[in-house]
Design goal:
This protein has 259 residues and is of the alpha/beta class. The protein has 9 helices and 7 strands.
């Protein structure tokens, strides 16, 4: 009985989800979580073959429809075109996850070039804005939808040599608030998911090193890094949560931002 209730609460059957940066890392993990909950998924990134391969694997594993498309989130015309192609294929877009992002150049402010700054801002902020704008137009016509922006704890706290990344993720949080305010009348929720240090295949070696263990001990009150399962469960909640939750920032960080 309890499992039936939970399945209904967190079901995404009949829904279509678009995930940017969806063929690997956090984007892929979230896409698989939604597919497991019954959603059809569209994965977009600059890597066409990566998106197509991931979509094929997801479709076969979870028995849902999945497609992979090449899309540069910084190209507004391409974004608009791909969003319409997704709608043509699936009929609608119920959930957008803006997961595409880059860390940018790790340099002090005085050594940052214009190109360094533009690179990270164009992907992490402008790309999130362009994709959200295109998908929101679809959702307004539907009178329903959820937009989940992947920000970071560095949208709230500062880190040396990360000015571009910190600024872009802070901008994503403000974009989330403004879009939530403007779109709520059309039954569209916009929230930000702000991870701290999450263990992935890409950073496992570092966090198992002495330097990584020292960082965790110093910076994270819970004394460990987060897991992808913890991030995925929060992403699923944001895709199915009550309509009263909008414009929020959810920090999944083991208490990192409270010290």
């Amino acid at each position: 009985m309890a499992s039936d209730i939970l399945e209904r609460l967190f079901s995404l059957k009949g829904k279509t989800v678009l995930v940017t940066g969806g063929y690997k890392g956090i984007g892929r993990a979230i896409a698989e979580t939604y597919a497991e909950a019954g959603a059809d998924v569209a994965l977009v990134a600059r890597n066409l073959l990566g998106c197509q391969a991931a979509a094929k694997e997801i479709a076969e594993k979870y028995k849902v429809r999945a497609m992979g498309k090449a899309m540069d989130v910084n190209d507004s015309k391409k974004v608009d075109t791909v969003v319409q192609e997704v709608v043509a294929e699936f009929g609608r877009i119920d959930v957008l996850v803006n997961s595409a992002g880059i860390p940018g150049s790790e340099k002090p402010v005085l050594k940052m070039t214009d190109e360094d700054l533009d690179g990270v801002m164009n992907v992490d902020f402008r790309g999130t804005f362009l994709t959200s704008r295109a998908v929101a137009q679809v959702m307004v016509k539907q009178k329903s939808g959820r937009i989940i922006n992947i920000s970071s704890i560095l949208g709230k706290i500062a880190a040396r040599n990360m000015v571009g990344y910190c600024a872009s993720k802070a901008a994503v949080i403000q974009l989330t608030r403004v879009m939530a305010l403007e779109l709520m009348r059309d039954n569209i929720q916009v929230n930000a998911l702000c991870p701290g240090y999450i263990l992935t295949e890409f950073n496992r070696d570092f966090f198992e090193s002495e330097a990584g263990k020292g960082l965790v001990k110093k910076m994270i009150p819970l004394n460990r890094v987060g897991t992808l399962d913890e991030l995925k469960s929060t992403a699923l909640y944001l895709a199915t949560c009550p309509a009263f939750l909008t414009g929020a920032e959810l920090y999944i960080d083991g208490g990192h931002t409270i010290i």
